[in-house]
Amino acid sequence: MNSKTLNRFLDDRIADLHKHGLYNEIDVVQGANGPVIMIDGQEKVNLSSNNYLGLATDERLKTAAKQAIDSHGVGAGAVRTINGTLDLHIQLEQKLAQFKGTEAAISYQSGFNCNMAAISAVMDNHDAILSDSLNHASIIDGCRLSRATIIRYEHSDIKDLRQKAKAAIESGAYNKIMVITDGVFSMDGDIAKLPEIADIAEEFDLITYVDDAHGSGVTGKGAGTVKQFGLEKRIDFQMGTLSKAIGVVGGYVAGKENLINWLKARSRPFLFSTAISPADALASTEALEILMNSTELNELLWENGNYLKVKLGNLGFNIGNSETPITPCIIGDEKQSQEFSKRLFEEGVYAKAIVFPTVPRGTGRVRNMPTAAHTKEMLDKAITVYEKVGKALGII
Ligand SMILES: *Cc1c(COP(=O)(O)O)cnc(C)c1O
Known about the structure:
It comes from Oceanobacillus arenosus. One of its GO terms (molecular function) is transferase activity. 46% of the residues lie in helices and 15% in strands. Strand 6, helix 8 and strand 7 (207-211) form a beta-alpha-beta unit. The protein is of the alpha/beta class. The strands form 3 sheets. A 7-stranded mixed sheet has the order 3-9-8-7-6-4-5, with helices on both faces. The protein contains 15 helices and 13 strands. The N and C termini lie far apart (52 Å). Pyridoxal-5'-phosphate (PLP) binds at residues 110-112, 115, 136, 138, 182, 186, 211, 213-214, 241, 243, 251.
């Protein structure tokens, strides 16, 4: 029985979302999340997942997960500090440190949770955080939770970052200052200017935090954006997720031993929430093993990404300035973007419209996420549908 106040609140707000076309009807995927998915009993070419390497359904990961269930059961049993740290978690963290080229690593239950945990374990209300204006929601919330002063700098604007870093230092108002950025920005597919950011950090002694959720498995031949630029020794926090290219679920920070020890002692989701399951831990370890031993899946991902980009660009779509396989088709108008996505769906292509407030007003788009698991036939089908719908709606 909801209170009257709660009912009024919910009914008003939900009606408001409907009125503005912002209420998202969530589709149910019937079966596995692969390059082709089943929705409402119909097959769709799936261009909406973050399963970049197709590992979510990889046989090797499935075998690892089953093995872990047989040997360790389905749950960790307690929070890590009490008695929920399994040998599988330690194994995963050692593999993560190796993967990222750092002394140590700590795993969390998700990437979102990891940003909640790690930022506020180090930063507090006497500190400031320089944050890129297009940073992910979990970074924004993690920063807020820390109660540090948040100083937004213009997206990838190095001059603005430097000015604001200088002003923050000269104010003498803060004990510590951090600069935090996505490694790859997921809506446009552009890469953060990490070498320049590392230089500014060195000049002003800033703490550096890179969230490479969309970079790991993708950039740097799979090792991520920090490694792509050879900055392993100059970035303090290499944060990532096990839920995107790695194909499973979870998050992590890789860094120096003292940082990881501190996070194990003080980050609250580590201390007060049960760790990922044995199956998640071993499947993730297997994924890292695959990534470190072969660039085959990574190469396929880039090949498919480039194929889709060239074809959609040649058809006349505005595909923006992506530097990764992420391929937006920028349409502009929010309603038209949604209509476009709906028509693609009817024709058998699943590519979601992304509109304000996720991206700035007037830059509505349909975002395509090709993966290593797509065949050329699947991509060709999608491209044919794009051409048909694009022409029908007067977009190309
Ligand atoms: C997806 C994403 C996260 C959250 O990761 P989950 O493991 O899905 O919780 C964090 N940061 C960025 C930049 C992301 O894109």
